[in-house]
Amino acid sequence: MPGLLWYAGALLAWAKGGPPAEISTVTIPKNFMIGTATSAYQVEGAWNVSGKGVSIWDTYVHEHPNLIAGRSNGDIAADSYHQYLQDVAALKKLGVDFYRFSISWPRILPHGQVNVVNQAGIDYYNKLINELIRNKIEPMIAMYHWDLPQTLQDLGGWANPIMAEYFEDYARVLFSKFGDRVKWWITFVDPDITVKSYIPSWNKAPGVNSPHVGLYLAIHTLIQSHSRAHRLYNNEFRDTQKGKLGLFANPIYSSEGDYPQIISEELEKLSIAQGYPKSRLIKFTPEEVTNIKGTFDFLGLNYYTTRLVRAPQPTVDLMNAPDNNVNLIIDPKWPPSASPNLKVVPWGFRKLLNWIKRAYNNTPVLVTGNGFSDRGETEDTERIKYIIVSGTTSTVFSKYYVHSFYKRCP
């Protein structure tokens, strides 16, 4: 099985095989394959048809339309639910080899649990997968991209530990229905955004105000949800389906299978100083640590910008993340993008890859998102320059980053 790499604008590259070739400092290797990515809520539309249940984003945008630019929502979006044939044709014309899309949990399980399975939702994704394969486009599925069924949020959402069990049940449905054709799986896209939704200033569904406690309950549940899905795949599906499944960094990729010691110590100090009787970071039991450790086939990585850090100063806002205990700084000289909080810092991508190589023992990396947003101009020289600076100005791109896939991916 070859290895994978995503680059600018969530483009995907896959080294096909053979030894890594020397490349120039301005050339992306010819044996890399290219793809793109979407999320269900952003493109599917059909929010209340064919048996689909309500998601937290459906609820959030309908109850708080003023929080969304232009009062837009995903009720219709790109209408991919009805226009998937045209979408796949466009992907084929674009020349992509991979398409990463997410499954809408409430489209498959309208009430969030497996007692009711929506066959119309199964049929839709089967048709999409089959059409992609017919056009020689490899499907890659993200199981969760922020659109939790509202019925599960009503039970507490990711702050409720029972969610790990429900996610495993959901994963079993996906593996059994689609795993005969889908070989690449991601459990959670941007899991940090999922848990940061507990910070009210982020203005993201479900809009829960519990930044100091709920956030850490959600982190605990997400990590266990991933580990349960990975162990499920190993135990019931891997031998016959032979796919790969990944997520994110600590503690999944740590040798200990637990939070880094410095995080545990600092959060305990902060929590006690704030009047809590113990740390707000939920501790894993020894059994949970054992179950979490090593539950990966690759590390999923998104990179969009960089922050500089320095020791905290009482007069400086910690950007709604006081537990960071550092000041996050944006260099005013960095070029802007169409997203105000995402400055264009391509060299940070290379530095991050270097750090991951050292920190996680050369773990295979799937770059699931990279690049920067523009304002829709057809002149794309700045993003071309971004690809060059972020990847090919260093031997990291060809000499060990690509080579690590040949060594580590069977």
Automatic annotation (TrEMBL):
What does the sequence similarity comment in the record state about its family? Answer: Belongs to the glycosyl hydrolase 1 family.
GO terms under biological process: carbohydrate metabolic process
In terms of superkingdom, the source organism counts as Eukaryota
Q: Does the keyword Signal apply?
A: yes
| Keyword Transport assigned | no
Please report the name of this protein according to its UniProt entry: Uncharacterized protein
Q: Which InterPro entries does this UniProt record tie to the protein?
A: GH, Glyco_hydro_1
The signal peptide, as residue positions, is 1-17
Q: Which SUPFAM superfamilies does the record cross-reference, listed alphabetically?
A: (Trans)glycosidases (SSF51445)
Q: Name one GO molecular function term.
A: beta-glucosidase activity
A Pfam family recorded for this sequence: Glyco_hydro_1
Keywords annotated in UniProt: Glycosidase, Hydrolase, Signal
